[in-house]
Amino acid sequence: MGLTWIALVIASGELAAAGGSSSWPAWTTGSMWLCSMPGMAGTAPGVSAPDAAAAPHVASIAAGLPMWALMAVAMMLPTAMPAVRHVAVNSLHWRRRRAVLEFIAVYLGIWMTFSVVALGTVIPLAPASPALLLSFALAVAALWQWTPLKRRALRACHRPRALPPHGWRATVGVARFGLDNGGACLASCWAMMIAIAAVSSARLAWMAALTVLIVVEKLSLKPGRVARRIGVLLGAAAIGTAAIATLGHPLGA
């Protein structure tokens, strides 16, 4: 996971350096997630206007997926370590490694599916006002921290599951546990991940800060109390981001 953060730093630097080069994609919002490939502008002969408008969005989502895969490993996999340990301890020695890989594949698959939704939501909105979009996303994340659904999802992240020891039942059991745990994690953290999608500048700093908050929240002995305190921090960040943007110094834009 440390190597994943190194890869993110390197990739972010390369994308920033490539922003002014015509041989690389043009980064339309300054974000490491959103891009449009050269030559997308305009409507190709025989292509309807709606199809032409949708094409850049689809290409941008596809271009952003590798970075989201790195982000999911760097940010979310550390919080899943208790579940990974549960799979390892409760699997037979000869299939332990395979079981762990099965769990991780299902867990990360959930986050990659969500990334398509997140990018599809943010891409059409980002050009309007990136700073205000980030402020709004942080406000939504702050409110989500205080909801009963958030607390229920957070509790579900800590819920173990009995794993069959042999045969196809063992494989299905690990996959179902990955779906349950990954789904609970998604329900708990989706709003903060949308906020990451809305970030354009200082993205690695935002990622690091939110990763710390997510890890502390999920691994805390009193996650509900920690979640509410994180909600206060996110609310303050939303207000601060909006104020800085209003004053003409966009943070994260």
Structure, briefly:
The protein is mainly alpha-helical and 253 residues long. The protein contains 9 helices and no strands.
How many domains? 1
What helical percentage do the residues reach?
A: 55-70%
Secondary-structure-derived class: mainly alpha
What is the helix tally? 9
Descriptive notes:
- The chain has one domain.
- Helix 5 (130-144) packs across helix 7.
- It contains nine helices and no strands.
- It is mainly α and 253 residues long.
- The longest helix is centred in the C-terminal third of the chain and has 32 residues, at 167-198.
- The relative contact order is 0.13.
Layout of strands and helices, then pairs:
Elements: H1 2-18, H2 49-75, H3 81-89, H4 96-122, H5 130-144, H6 148-156, H7 167-198, H8 203-219, H9 223-246
Helix pairs in contact: 1-2, 2-4, 3-4, 4-7, 5-7, 5-9, 6-7, 8-9
Which structural traits does this protein have?
mainly alpha, 253 residues
